[in-house]
Amino acid sequence: MTYDQLKQQKELILLDCISGSTAYNLNIAGSDVDKKGIFIMRQEQLYGFERQDQIANATNDEVYFEIGRFLELLIKNNPNILELLSMPQEHVLFRHPLIDLIKPEDFLSKLCLDTFAGYAQTQIKKARGLNKKINKPLDSERKSVLDFCFVVYRNGSVPLKEWLNEMGYSQQECGLTDLPHFRDVYLLYHKSQLTNGNWFRGIVSGADADNVQLSPVDKGLEPLAVMNFNKDGYSVYCKEYHEYKQWEEKRNQLRYQSTLSHGKSYDAKNMMHTFRLLSMAEEIAVYHQVRVHRDDREFLLKIRNGDFEFDTLMQMVEEKMQHIKLLYLQSSLPALPIPNIAEDILVEIRQTFYQGSLKN
Question: Does pTM surpass 0.85?
Answer without folding.
Answer: no
